[in-house]
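Problem 12. The chain below contains 82 residues. Write out its predicted structure in token notation.
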Amino acid sequence: MAKVEITPPKWIEVKHLFETRQDLQLPGVKGALWAAYNAVTTFEDYREARDDTRAKRLDRAWFGSGADLKVKALTEALRFAA
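Solution.
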């Protein structure tokens, strides 16, 4: 049986940011690891959950799961660039 891969909705949104966000389309930025990392950080910093308040969103982005994902994204970008 063939393996079916399903892309999580949040990664579809990150890809959309990577491909369409104006500041990530500038020469020297477009398609670069920097753009990919910034797509992840933008998604995490500005996404909203159903029960979010500004305080919860800030806490998640700076100290919680959002911060963890941004560290992982940076680590992978640095590993890839090495």
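Discussion. The CA atoms of residues 48 and 75 lie 24 Å apart. Students who got a different answer should revisit the alignment rule from Section 12.3.
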